[in-house]
Amino acid sequence: MTTEEHIEGLEGWFQSWDDHDLTARPLVKIGGTYTIYTGRLNEVEVATLGRLLLGLPGARPDSMGFFHDSSGDPCFEASFEPSGLTVEGQALPEQWAAWDIAFRAAVEEAKLPRFPA
Length: 117
Hints:
Distance between the termini: 13 Å
Mean pLDDT: 86
Low-confidence stretches: 1-10
Helix content: 25-40%
Strand content: 25-35%
Radius of gyration: 14 Å
Strand order of the largest sheet: 1-2-6-5-4-3
Number of strands: 6
Largest sheet: 6 strands, antiparallel
Number of domains: 1
């Protein structure tokens, strides 16, 4: 189902940057934007997004924008931008996959508004 402010499904709403490389090893290079209407979120939706970021794999309890690997080393960060939620950094492939899937599922469950892909 597609509406003006929401798209069902988990595919098609991550816009990768040129340097985003999931084939790089041992760490994948992460760079892109999840096309969420960050500028249109109301207070409740902003709070919901903040809570879901803090609940994602590797989340630092003191910051909703920084994520670390299992040894505690920083690996990537997320930030609110006019175009959506951007992510940048590097991680083990399985860590990135777990984070990406968990984030998409949480946003879908919360029904946060997204740009059409």
